[in-house]
Amino acid sequence: MNDELVLYGNPRSRAQMVRFMLEELGVPYRLAVVDFEKGENRQADYLAINPMGKVPAIVHRGVTVTETGAIIAYLADAFPEKGLAPAIDDPRRGTWLRWLFFAAGAFEPALLDTMLKRPEAPRSTAGYGSYADVLGALDTMLDPGPWILGDRFSAADVYVGAELAWASMFGAPGIADHPRIAAYVERIRDRPAYRKTTGA
Ligand SMILES: N[C@@H](CCC(=O)N[C@@H](CS)C(=O)NCC(=O)O)C(=O)O
């Protein structure tokens, strides 16, 4: 079996979140640049990897994984000795999965709708309720902190933290009203793996 880990992406994409995860893990990988300007993400060879024509994607041990949150969770499980995923029988696994899925299924759509000034759907229909609800929930996620699993940094922090850092960098509203979230973003930005990824 080919054990090589290949990340498809480019620096102007969510592939940076996966790079953050790979740097936290400290495992070797090959970056295969997919150039949007050249339309490489819409060419047949890349569509065979991700029919959505989107990055990031990884190929590891002959399996393709797409979707940033799934890739980050997969990698945490693929390298259990790195300690970024609670074991399958650890009750904290529930908290870990909860916020990983919340980031993909609630926070990201709420954030994009807000940044693009799209009208919000009725609160009871929108899966994320409202943007304000989402920020309020993320605030409770940090109880007690400093990380999602308390003292233990995990892959959930990589994904949620990278999304929050992105939101903060692009001036998403409301974050400054949540000092715990703002402080969490600073902790994420201080991580050597994050700095290495962003060149900060
Ligand atoms: N749901 C996907 C979204 C991936 C996505 O939208 N990627 C963007 C870059 S950040 C992309 O590949 N855009 C190129 C295109 O759609 O043509 C994930 O979370 O990974």
List descriptors.
4-stranded mixed β-sheet, binds glutathione, Glutathione S-transferase Yfyf (Class Pi), Chain A, domain 2, 200 residues, single chain, Glutaredoxin, alpha+beta, globular
At a glance:
With 200 residues, the protein is α+β, with helices and mostly antiparallel strands. It has helices spanning 15-25, 44-47, 68-78, 92-115, 131-141, 155-169, 179-189, 192-198, and strands spanning 5-9, 30-33, 57-60, 63-66. It is built from eight helices and four strands; from the N terminus they run E-H-E-H-E-E-H-H-H-H-H-H.
Along the chain, the helix and strand elements come as EHEHEEHHHHHH
Global geometry? globular
CATH architectural type of the largest domain:
Up-down Bundle
Chain oligomer state = single chain
Strand tally is 4
Largest sheet: 4 strands, mixed
Say which molecules are bound, naming each kind only once: glutathione
Helix tally equals 8
Q: Structural class of the secondary structure composition?
A: alpha+beta
The CATH class name of the largest domain reads: Mainly Alpha
Structure write-up:
The protein has helices at residues 15-25, 44-47, 68-78, 92-115, 131-141, 155-169, 179-189, 192-198; strands spanning 5-9, 30-33, 57-60, 63-66. With 200 residues, it is an alpha+beta fold. It has 2 domains: 5-82, Glutaredoxin; 92-195, Up-down Bundle (Glutathione S-transferase Yfyf (Class Pi), Chain A, domain 2), CATH 1.20.1050. Strands 2-1-3-4 form a 4-stranded mixed beta sheet, covered by helices on one side. Strand 3 (57-60) and strand 4 form a beta hairpin. Helix 3 packs antiparallel against helix 4, helix 3 runs antiparallel to helix 6 (155-169) and helix 6 crosses helix 7. The mean pLDDT is 96. The chain binds glutathione (GSH). Residues 13-14, 36, 41, 53-56, 67-68 line the site of glutathione (GSH). Residues 89-200 form the GST C-terminal domain. Pfam families: GST_C_2 (PF13410), GST_N (PF02798). Residues 2-83 form the GST N-terminal domain. This is Glutathione S-transferase, N-terminal domain.
